[in-house]
Amino acid sequence: MLFSYARAQVQEFLDRHASDPAVAADIALLRAEHAAETSPPPMASVTAYVRWLMDRDSKSTSLKSLQGKIWEQGYRAGELRGEVYPDVPPALQRWRRQGIEIAIFSSGSVQAQRNLFANTTAGDFTGFIRAYFDTTTGLKSAPQSYAAIAGALERDPSTVLFVSDVGVELDAARAAGMQTALCVRARAPDAAVPSSAHPVIRTFDDVP
């Protein structure tokens, strides 16, 4: 829903906000990225390039920044609500009681992360989250990104558990010294657990 909303709204959003300094910065970065592409499409418009990147599930930092601004507009208008799995609210509450700090590392911008957790159908969960990290920290496939996150959290990497459904991200986190868990949601209860070099969980109920 979020991506289809951004795709549908991008032209109108740029028409209204292209002169805003933060949006203008995103546009400048998108133009620079287009110029650096090895085989880019013709730059008919920023909107066309944004949609081309979205079609390719690009992790472009400038794209994610622009999407975050479009989504913020949608949350403010009441047109968007964040969805979380049913096990998420009790897990956040349980970890808070245990004194466990929670941080998010996503390819979505920090702004997008904050907006999602502030506007979920189950309530505002931003009070449970200590820090947010996006690709301005580094690639999710790079061990140094996870080392930087541990440093920002003032934690030894060995004391941090990183949960993801993407193997290369878990490999990178483990290479940085973190504990890891592969989350395999949306599988039938009797489905075989995939083989993995990382401990496997089905829901956050499996995390102590």
List the helices and strands and how they pair.
Layout: H1 2-17, H2 21-36, H3 46-55, H4 61-76, H5 88-97, E1 103-105, H6 110-118, E2 131-133, H7 143-152, E3 161-164, H8 167-175, E4 179-183, E5 200-201
Parallel strand pairs: 1-2, 3-4, 4-5
- CATH level-two architecture of the largest domain: 3-Layer(aba) Sandwich
What's the N-to-C terminus distance? 31 Å
CATH top level label of the largest domain: Alpha Beta
Strand order of the largest sheet: 3-4-5
Strand/helix succession: HHHHHEHEHEHEE
Question: What's the main sheet like?
Answer: 3 strands, parallel
Tally of domains: 2
Strand content: 5-15%
The CATH homologous superfamily of the largest domain is named HAD superfamily/HAD-like
Tell me the CATH topology of the largest domain: Rossmann fold
Low-confidence runs (pLDDT<50, min 5 residues)?
none
Quote the average pLDDT.
Answer: 91
Task: Please outline what is shown here.
The chain has 208 residues and is mostly helical. The protein has 8 helices and 5 strands, in the order αααααβαβαβαββ.
Provide a descriptive summary of the structure in words:
The protein is mostly helical and 208 residues long. It folds into 2 domains: 2-76, no CATH class; 88-206, Rossmann fold. It has helices at 2-17, 21-36, 46-55, 61-76, 88-97, 110-118, 143-152, 167-175, and strands at 103-105, 131-133, 161-164, 179-183, 200-201. The strands form 2 sheets. The protein has a 3-stranded parallel sheet, covered by helices on one side. α1 (2-17) packs across α4, α4 (61-76) runs parallel beside α6 and α7 (143-152) crosses α8. The mean pLDDT is 91.
